[in-house]
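From the pipeline queue, job 12 of 40. The input is one protein chain; the requested action is below.

Action: predict structure.
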Amino acid sequence: MYENHRFTEPFSDRNLSALKADCEQCFGLCCAALPFAASIDFARDKDAGQPCHNLQSDFRCGVHTELRELGYRGCTVYDCFGAGQKISQVTYGGEDWRKKPKTAKQMFEVFPIMWHLHELLWYLHESLNLEITRTIHTELQTALDETEQLTLLNPEALAKVDVAAHRAKINMLLLQVSELVRTEARRKLKKSAKNFSRGADLMGAKLTGADLRGANLRGAYLIAADLRDADLRGADLIGADFRDTDLRSANLAEALFLTQAQINAAKGNTLTKLPATLSCPDHWHSH
């Protein structure tokens, strides 16, 4: 049991609402700014800055309910952490790139920067909501405040943000969080947690029912791995690749640094236990 890892209350809506995609408040930025290549995830190529042919004049997707059937699985996996509405409504004050075409190039360029910053905010909010990290809450709050300030910069200043340097700085704190959580998870085990190196190649691995509590799975390649009935409570999953990972009936309720995009990329069912901050994808209901 890991009830001591987290506060009894989940993330507050006040904290999380800005870090969840609100497509109604966005100018279709993921559909226009980002590139994709014809593959198992996308039916055709699209260059960065080229609006998808399915994007309508109101910035909604014309085939939203049929994306997977039409070969656009990647669109159903992607999550912007709320960066789209932040750019649209805050950075550009509600002025869209169609009405002001001169802003399009810049808007598309700063969108990925905002995405990275909002991803870091997600991890920092999660870290601050862990009771086990109380010894570094001050440092985490400072990092969160600094990151939030970067997201409020004007477009010109935002474009100059050194995201790599800022991410490296934040990652030092996230590593401390990981160590605290996993150490506590291991303490509760009668045996040592499984040990994996960062970026472990676990593609197609047979891990059915595996006890992965407290495991370090940062950046692990779990593509098409079988994790049915596995226990991942207290495991660090930051950056882990969950494409087609079988998570049916797995327990990820208290997994660390898990995101909606990772869950969207995986296979699961209604018996898969997720953190309260994440939602069961629609396509899981068929399994």
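Job complete. Confidence is low (pLDDT under 50) at residues 1-14.
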